[in-house]
Amino acid sequence: MSPQPEPPVDLEQSEPVGKQKLSPTVVALGVVSLFTDMSSEMVYTQVPLFLTSVLGAPAAAVGIIEGIAESTASLLRLVSGHLSDRSGRRKPLTLLGYTFGAVSKPLTAFAHVWPIVLLLRFVDRFGKGLRTAPRDALIAESTPKAIRGRAFGLHRTMDTTGAVLGPLLGYWFLSHLRGGANNPSTLDHNLRMLFLFAGLPGIAAVLTLLFVVREPAKQQRVPEASLSSAGIQSTQTNPKAFSLPRWRSLQPDYRRFLLITLLFNLGNFSDAFLVLRARSLHFSASEILLLYAAFNVVEACLGYGAGILSDKIGRRPLIIGGYLVFAAVYFGFARAETKAAIWALFLLYGFYYTLTQGVQRAFAADMADPAQRSTQIGAYHTVVGVALLPASVFAGFLFDRNPALPFYLGAATGLASACLLAIQLRRPAASL
What we know:
This protein is mainly α and 432 residues long. It has one domain: MFS general substrate transporter like domains (Growth Hormone, Chain: A), CATH 1.20.1250. The chain has helices at residues 24-44, 46-54, 59-87, 91-107, 114-141, 148-175, 187-197, 199-211, 224-229, 252-265, 272-280, 285-313, 316-335, 339-367, 373-401, 405-424. Helix 13 packs antiparallel against helix 16 (405-424). The longest helix has 29 residues, at 59-87.
């Protein structure tokens, strides 16, 4: 039985920020993401190894698979945002999306050709695309605006905590299998067993969402006068009317941010290539799990603080800093020649995630029209998705020729995006 709805949340609550508390729904959604990332990150770094070392796929195939998968996740968020806004419900699509993700990992254990892995990665990311926009809208609508950065920061921290525990649990599991974690002769068997094991925390996530998360009761729309004073142009007068978000209906600052986001993500290809770069410098499967755990420790420790800081100084300065870190890290990956360098770069890469991931989502939520919040959050993710497919496919072809080439491209787009966003800081805007 689904839990009863929570009482409506006063999104313009005037109580001092320090005394405002996060909703139990926000905390429960954080637990859901913790379990989900335990499942996902337990196997994420192993999928490129499974493809290249077990199934014999080239790096170009990895780029195609990850490009299609990740762009599907981003593009579908606009559709799921539409459906969520139209129905007025957030939880059903969120639940369906997490269910798709939970079943896709164990099914990978039965794949024997790389197109099957493509199909299952598509199912997994299809689920992510379904759930993300309505879930983010659920977080926003369960939280007063004054502490929304804190809410997204907490969610991202719990998400990343799962991303730390997942690789560590995967390392422990592989170490207790036949031949141990580093035996090449048993890599096929061990990875397939790991995919099966990863289904358990995925099921826990679905059950937590089903029985613990409560959707806030419907509340009245924010009055038009309140929207105007906040610098937001309403796109709907009838809540039942439904239409795609129009480019001109978005705030000018939001439109500029989306264009810069598009440029940045043309060089922000799948993290699977970071795994392949580490593999090219002779990291074993188990070492890569530890490497990814260390990367996620950085974000888990700092993500919540970054959300709080963004509430105080604004979102854009943190995003600019994150883009600059990204550019430096990708340049480092292009030049790296030792395992020590890869370890340092992965830790610094975690700092980029800290500065951008939760903060960018909170930024999109801030500027979205409350009448179409889920839809307009989905628009941000759609822009990301438009770039991810060509970015990852092109990176795969470049990697097969020279592993350093895609990282030079990423460093260039990261630096250019930071400069463009810094220029926008000089423009007066209510959202800063």
